Amino acid sequence: MKNTTVSSWNEFDPLKHVIVGRADHTCIPPSELATEAKVPEDSDMRGMWGPRPLETVEKANIQLDSLASLLENRGIRVDRPTPIQWNQAVSTPDFSAGSMFGCMPPRDVLLTIGSEILMAPMSFRCRYFEYLAYHPLMQQYFDEDPNFRWEQAPRPRLTDESYQSGYFDEITIEERLKRTAELNFVTTEHEPLFDAADVCRLGKDLFCQHGLTTNRRAMEWLQRHFPDHRVHAVNFPGDPYPIHIDATFVPLRPGLIINNPNRKLADEQIKIFTANDWQIVDAALPSNDTPPPLCYSSVWLSMNCLVLDHNTVIVEASETTQMEQMDKLGMNVLPLAFRDAYPFGGGLHCATADVFREGVCEDYFPNQVGSTMIRS
Length: 376
Ligand code: DAV
Hints:
- By secondary structure, this protein is α/β, with parallel strands linked by helices.
- It is 18% helix and 20% strand.
- It has helices spanning 33-38, 54-73, 135-144, 173-181, 216-225, 271-274, 320-328, and strands at 15-20, 27-28, 50-51, 77-79, 90-91, 96-97, 110-113, 116-119, 149-152, 199-202, 205-209, 230-234, 249-253, 256-259, 279-282, 306-309, 312-316, 332-336, 352-357.
- A three-stranded mixed beta sheet has the order 4-1-19.
- The longest helix is centred in the N-terminal third of the chain and has 20 residues, at 54-73.
- The protein binds delta-amino valeric acid.
């Protein structure tokens, strides 16, 4: 039996064991309310659906494998999910979906907090069964680590009541920005919904982005589920497609966060960081003008780095401006070609999920000021 311990409290302590996704069988799912709100109006993905071309899958897998090798060569244990045939229609008593999605971005579904891995109640119907790809690993960790807590958030029903209508029409960027500022998102408050990638883990404090994929009810659920933590709601008014915090607000080490300059943390939410001597720095502008073809994400995947320890970070190899900034901020930067994997669900942070990082649950924010706390 392997010597497994599940434990991770933050995004930056020394990484020792991680899951790296796989691109096999990934589909572009048919349009549904939640994806419609996320895919940009001018995206080449509009109207497309079905299995992604095999040659793109192969190229993505090559880069995912080289991420796994880089990590293993540094002594980090890497596990991989078991893809299923995502090109199957699925149904529950409440909904059906024409296909599933994939298992390239484990970060979206697996939330590791201490000795627990919590499977997220995601809002995309096509992602309802994605956790199945991680089931063999969870079973293995369960057998190998007597303290591992294998958990699943309440399975959402995802009926039409979970979504606002009015997101299916063409919406201008101005209208989207207005909705973001008003905290008016496609997901309703009908039931708790979140993607794990909307949660930024900083020891005792969990900062959750309220946006297209995560609602307030989920934050209330997380607060009750993790009573020893403090759950905060944050938002970034300049983002027309607020989904996942990891191309927006990215901690590099204790006391230092890079923030997307187009998606700045709302003014009244900065207090808790300044009151605890955390520095929030504008991230460098991306080096690429456009995302690769058939990609959900924006050019800001430039920020979606994987921190290996307080001094070491992997950054996508074409993101030279971001690499230079990290270097100036005192990080050793390991460049890795990864753009072929972007269309499959994101960058280096998205493509991974923590199993073990050294360190304990620190209280980085003893001065609880401002208005972010879910429970004050
Ligand atoms: O900027 O498109 C990508 C986040 C992926 N987890 C963006 C957000």
